[in-house]
Amino acid sequence: MSLPTLIRKILDFFYPVFMRFIPRETYYYAACGGGNLVLSWVLFFLFYQLVFQKAVLHIQFFNDYHFAFSAYTLSAACCFIITFIIGFLLMKYVVFVDSALKGRIQLFRYGLSSLMSALLSWVLLKFFIEIVMIYPSISNVLSSLIVVVFSYLMQRKFTFK
Prior knowledge:
It is a single chain. The protein is mainly alpha-helical. The chain has one domain (about 5-160). Helices cover about 75% and strands about 5% of the residues. It is built from 5 helices and 2 strands, in the order H-H-E-E-H-H-H. Strands 1-2 form a two-stranded antiparallel sheet. A hairpin with a 3-residue loop joins strand 1 (about 55-60) and strand 2 (about 65-70). The longest helix is centred in the C-terminal third of the chain and has 29 residues, at about 105-130. It is elongated. It starts with a helix and ends with a helix.
């Protein structure tokens, strides 16, 4: 049995609880997307606290160009890379299995919508941290909860239509 089939069987076991409220595909999306979202929160916390240790990374190019990357920006970037791969595989092989689009088209569209979601999430993250003064890990959760609705609509209406 393949991993996507196993995931669908596990999700199908719990679906009767939700079947009166949402269609199966939406349930799959919520479960897979929610799991990937929680994974991104855990990864962000771990990257921010342990890997980048709340530091600022300074990079200088050719003595003229200087860039400073905050720990939360680096943490968000690392989380994006990991959850992008996992998210695409879940959406393609577990959620939107009936899509007639070719895999490379789906990947391109998923990448485009994920980049837009990541950009929106980063702007909100920056807003919550620097303007509202909320702790980065909590800001990450808040910003990603706002982006969930945008992401769902993009995946359903554009990426895997």
